[in-house]
Design brief:
alpha+beta, Alpha-Beta Plaits, 4-stranded antiparallel sheet, 2 helices, globular, Dimeric_a/b-barrel, Transcription initiation protein
Length: about 110
């Protein structure tokens, strides 16, 4: 089975403050469904309180992520599904729960990893 990343950037989640409790409840309900159905790998949000750093091959640490890349923030889930279509179905559930579009990507399998 393929592992799929279902994610959204923080800026995509434009929800009125009075709806946030419902969003939180709905998102946790979808996560509970993924666990109950055995498709859950893990889920989380990027911790915005710890800024990104880049570490070079020589060990040099530079503050910030890649300059040309959009910031990595928001929330994500990794699910194991038999097909892209099955992952899209879960992405739709997350989109309803989080009140924002979800991006879906497949992880490439490396048998040596």
């Amino acid at each position: 089975m393929t592992k799929f990343l279902i994610a959204f950037p923080a800026a995509a989640m434009v929800v009125p403050a009075e709806e946030m409790a419902a969003v939180d409840c709905d998102a946790h309900a979808v996560i509970a469904q993924t666990k109950a159905e055995g498709v859950y790998v893990f889920a989380a949000r990027i911790d915005g309180g710890l800024p990104p750093v880049r570490v070079s091959a020589d060990g040099t640490v530079t503050q910030g992520g890649y300059p040309a890349a959009r910031p990595l923030d928001g929330g994500f889930a990794v699910l194991e599904r038999p097909s892209h279509e099955a992952a899209l179905s879960w992405a739709a559930r997350f989109a309803r729960a989080c009140r924002c579009d979800q991006e879906v990507r497949a992880f490439g399998f490396d048998p040596q990893s």
